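Report of the visiting student (M.T.), summer placement. My assignment was to run the structure pipeline on a short list of targets and document each run. The first record concerns Putative histone H3 (Lys9) methyltransferase SUV39H1.
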Amino acid sequence: MAAQVLALRKQHETPLSMTALAGSAMRYSQKDLSLRGPCIVYAIHRVVVMAVPGEAGDAELALRLHQELSGLPTRRRRSPSQRDGNCDSPSADVSPSGSGAPLESIFKKPRLEVNDSAQAGSLSSDGEPTNGGEDEEPLPERGSGTWITRRQRSPVIPDSAQVGWVKKSCSEPSAPSNAAPLQGADRGKPSEAEPNLGSAPPDLEQEAAARVRKALAVYNHERLHQVVKEEERVKADGGTKRPDLKTLQAMRKRKQILHDGKKVIGHFPGVKVGDSFYERAQLSALRLHTPPVAGIDTLAADKSPYGTSIATSIVLAGGYEDDVDKGETFTYTGAGGNNIKGNRRQGDHQKLEGVNQALANSGRLGVPVRVFRGFEETSGNTKVRVFTYDGLYLCVNNWIQRGISGFDVVKFEMQRQGGQPPLSSQQVYFVGQRGSLPKTMKAADRPGLISTDISGGRDTIPVCMVNDLDKEDAVGAPAFEYIARMDHRQEEGPACKCTNPGDCSDPNKCACARRNDFGFPYVEGGRLQQTGQGVVYECGPSCGCGDNCPSRVVQKGLSHRLEVFKTRNRGFGVRSWDFIQVGSFICEYTGQILTDAQAHECDDDSYLFNIDPTTDGFVGEEFGAEASISKLPQVEYSIDALRAGNVARFVNHSCTPNAVVQSVLFDHHNPSLSHIALFAYDNIPPGREITYDYNYKVGTVIGVDNEEKVLDCLCGNKPPICKGRLY
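After the run finished, the structure tokens were exported:
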């Protein structure tokens, strides 16, 4: 929990004129690129990755994207700081732990059976693929809410990486003849007349990533809200719950779809290889892959810069029996003829038309497509669908052959483009095959193992500690007493009289649920619906509802397999072996209770955490509402995890966090001694480091000599996302 994620490596881009390129080793010319008029070509690591028509002498790729960030996490007066004792000296050639390719490769997605992505559908009149028969229902009225999330940074591209399309057996893509220079507010936003075949400069990528995080925040908030609405609707009228589609409808109605609903060709600004997304509707909300069912996303001929329909992305999720996935290459089965609602076998012939023809056109033109692989992941006790972005692939061949079930199928040979970060997901296998489930991971099998369980059996799930970074034998588990859960020994609060656990989710029946500012706080397996309500009240030991009550989450302890690991320059950090859904409980922050006066006398305040129940939470401006904050007393106590604590003491800071702090009460009702719980602020894939914002204010930390303390921030973000200092 020491310093933060270190700075992202700076890529070196150079805007080059056509004259400058003429004599270069790349041998690209205006004629080669089929550009009409002046253009700007960006070279990254000696590979041309993007060509954009523009004004003569214009040295910009596009104007900077509008930064749209959500509010700061929970407010605290004093928090755990970076600890010099657990930190190595910063190095300029290292990448962020928990988000770089070396760590992500340890936790590669297993071969799993999935059936979520049938490639059925065809082009509609407006160029959008059909959704395979899913009818959109009228959108229910939207209620209030405050849960907002941010995107976690994704793997950093190594210095040797060359991002962009690489010519294979197909011709190079031609730039659009009808493209006009972007003007005003439209500049910097990808358009359907602007192929984007490589990554943008780092500063533009950071601001694009901020836009992606903002859109994900809106989606995650709205979806948790729609879960409640759908449960009420199905209970009253029957039918099937589809909070994902309702969320998509709501965002369309409020015009919150990313990039104004326009599709992006090639590289998607702000999204990097290894980024994971929860369910197909989330991909659609970001315009990464728009159809909710079909596996091929396309751009119609009248909207395509190439004058013919092309494919923009495909999803590979085991929906077709004729797919063959080898990672860097795979054979993809076209759309049509699949028995989606039955045995998922091929039941009719496919033809090279519609979306299949669009994918073939992309191969002929040399236009790469984005590829997403879908997997089932375990999040606590819940199975979830996760889609991982694996980069740009080029269709190098296509043909028609007789398939396994005896029908003609269109086959596409897909080749991953060179110079991209390593794959973070493994091959996808047809759902009818067995034996592809991963073996249970054991701590004893982890490289660099320090301890199989630092909790010594005190926590509900073992927490292992590893050092897979170096071979320093002296690096061992820090000496501290493990406390799985805080025991404040306070008088128990009022109990609900519910005897049926299901009643505790109804504020009209449960007294505990009524104490929450926004009603029952949890949805779908114990996920926090929203923050900003001061304190979350769970049912307690005196309540009659029992252990199966849906209002008992934090008190049950860990539900995900967590691992403490050594980082490159921030001591130890925390990551998960399991996929953690947004809103899920991660762990409680434990330690010794100190009064405010005792806390001010501490020589080492590195692990101090104020118990501040007046948490603001996350309030999105787009919802026009502020969180309700209970009138609670000022901070009276702090938690000191220096000599006693749990896994939470190792969680590091980030200016783009994926976890959030929430005060929770269950064994008593004294808000000054709330339990401090960490919840997922975003979907966190296995192997991604868990972080939260310590939320220091620069200039507010004073040492024992009454001098201001200064500590640099190493989160890897540039201003204005990062202030440059932790305090």
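Helices lie at 18-22, 101-106, 202-237, 243-253, 280-285, 355-365, 511-514, 596-600. The first strand starts at residue 13 and ends at 16. I thank the supervising group for their guidance throughout the placement.
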